[in-house]
């Protein structure tokens, strides 16, 4: 049986490889080509060079969405990872009902982004009304913090699971040795647990950075880019350019924005992976 598997492994690989090529590779290559074209549909594309990229970079809504998204990535990444780590540290102690608490914290991750967006839109708008503050659709700052709150509520439980797995993989001998040497709980956390936790930190940072950059459905449901495109993240700005503006030129510009967006996320993610992996400690 083992010899047959070794001999015919390409047959088992073929369905997954075919799905990946058809569902990702071919559309990706086609999308890159269309970013250099003016088109209404895929079949009537005409090559126009780098014009779409020039117009995309000159679009003030795109540049605003970029910096707005960067600020959102920094704040949400720090908040989600600090929150997830703190909850993980609490729920790895001897605590009655800790498995139930872990389940409760993880459950928001199972709810769809559109549903979460509309739920939090109602909750936050009610809260803002009670405080006599502008609603989410009227204040980009309120929309920003609304998105941060929504992301934290959804993602902290997911990162908590990864941090719990990392904390449980740390050998007890290391923490016991630190206690014998007279280290305080804070010193044990900083000098022992965090260095050993770097693989989990690498994964969580990668997930939160990429998720924060490509956030779309929550942005659409919570603020819809209002007021006047001031609360648009990059993914929603690309969507609006492609589908919300009339004229064949905007589809090519939207596709060019998508390519630029892809390059930005890939570059930032690779830099983050390279930096954090250098700090990982072999157990």
Automatic annotation (TrEMBL):
Ranges where the ABC transmembrane type-1 domain occurs: 66-272
Entry-linked Gene3D superfamilies: MetI-like (1.10.3720.10)
A cellular component annotation (GO) from this entry: plasma membrane
Compartment(s) of residence: Cell membrane
NAD recorded as keyword: no
Listed GO biological process terms: transmembrane transport
Lipid bilayer topology: Multi-pass membrane protein
PROSITE patterns recorded: ABC_TM1
Annotated keywords: Cell membrane, Membrane, Transmembrane, Transmembrane helix, Transport
Parts of the chain that traverse the membrane: 12-36, 66-91, 103-123, 143-165, 194-213, 253-273
Family: Belongs to the binding-protein-dependent transport system permease family.
PANTHER family: BLL4140 PROTEIN (PTHR43227)
Protein name: Sugar ABC transporter permease
Organism: Candidatus Merdiplasma excrementigallinarum
Lineage: Bacteria, Bacillati, Bacillota, Clostridia, Lachnospirales
